[in-house]
Amino acid sequence: xxxxxxxxxxxxxxxxxxxxxxxxxxxxxxxxxxxxxxxxxxxxxxxxxxxxxxxxxxxxxxxxxxxxxxxxxxxxxxxxxxxxxxxxxxxxxxxxxxxxxxxxxxxxxxxxxxxxxxxxxxxxxxxxxxxxxxxxxxxxxxxxxxxxxxxxxxxxxxxxxxxxxxxxxxxxxxxxxxxxxxxxxxxxxxxxxxxxxxxxxxxxxxxxxxxxxxxxxxxxxxxxxxxxxxxxxxxxxxxxxxxxxxxxxxxxxxxxxxxxxxxxxxxxxxxxxxxxxxxxxxxxxxxxxxxxxxxxxxxxxxxxxxxxxxxxxxxxxxxxxxxxxxxxxxxxxxxxx
Length: 337
Ligand SMILES: NC(=O)c1ccc[n+]([C@@H]2O[C@H](COP(=O)([O-])OP(=O)(O)OC[C@H]3O[C@@H](n4cnc5c(N)ncnc54)[C@H](O)[C@@H]3O)[C@@H](O)[C@H]2O)c1
Ligand SMILES: O=P(O)(O)OC[C@H](O)CO
Prior knowledge:
Pathway: Membrane lipid metabolism; glycerophospholipid metabolism
Bound molecules: nicotinamide-adenine-dinucleotide, SN-glycerol-3-phosphate
EC number: 1.1.1.94
Protein name: Glycerol-3-phosphate dehydrogenase [NAD(P)+]
Domain Glycerol-3-phosphate dehydrogenase NAD-dependent C-terminal: 188-326
Order of helices and strands: EHEHEEHEHEHEHEHHHHHHHH
Strand order of the largest sheet: 3-2-1-4-5-6-7-8
Strand content: 5-15%
Low-confidence stretches: none
Number of helices: 14
Catalytic activity: sn-glycerol 3-phosphate + NAD(+) = dihydroxyacetone phosphate + NADH + H(+); sn-glycerol 3-phosphate + NADP(+) = dihydroxyacetone phosphate + NADPH + H(+)
């Protein structure tokens, strides 16, 4: 890690996809009257050139003009003095990205995971994966309901920032909150991350229900019972059950499970209409399709009942068709709510 002095007013966003670009816009606006230095690190020089000529990131956020003052670069050295580092690459790239940037990230910088998922091979939380690479145990996480396009357009959005201590969570949340982007502080990194990973799986289930024409009552049942599953895994992994009722659980599940802006929902709709799992995602990132099987395996290993997550995983793996999955869910023994 870099020993250089920190610039507390500087924010580096790693990954110039939809969410990274939106967070860079929010971070710039969060500065208020104090000029902020916000660096958006892309891995593609062509994207940097496009931004310089058009003032947009047309690949990631089509039609949205980005504010002046944003520094978009493909030069990793540019992040060296950043006081806050937001890792906005997909879940499975978080560890490798942290390893690559280790020499550049300042030792005292706040590092924030901004992806929703679990490590595919192990089921570990992304804060653990990144922490291992950076030799730290104080990696924070940002999660909750917020579409990148809404955030970048300046529509009102609220999300959760969870960190190892209440002081750190409050400091980062305050630093990144602005006129239209509001962060709530939490110390439940387990609950917040499991909420983000599992709501994607449950949004796929909502999509399957919609695509297969199973009705809105089924979707409401799925959201409630999905939340119950989420709560069981959160508790078993040492998180706080109440967290699932907040922005990172219920809030994000309602958003992702009902809005056609969601890639996870659209993927589920394609599956529900009979599409093959391999083709349903197209070229889009569908985090829930990666998280479903690892969450299902984790639940099974812990002896936790997560029938919806298990059904989604089995449908994606081709082990279950939708009719069989519905029959299996509806014929389970009657239990207490
Ligand atoms: N898009 C949203 O509305 C939104 C909102 C909240 C959270 N998220 C989360 O943010 C994460 C990123 O999503 P996104 O929507 O920005 O995706 P995206 O596909 O728009 O962008 C991903 C970016 O990461 C880069 N990237 C991909 N693989 C990489 C690798 N191996 N190494 C380095 N860079 C790599 C890509 O070039 C791209 O710029 C996901 O975990 C998602 O769940 C997204
Ligand atoms: O497009 P999705 O399904 O990845 O959802 C984006 C965000 O996670 C919504 O909060």
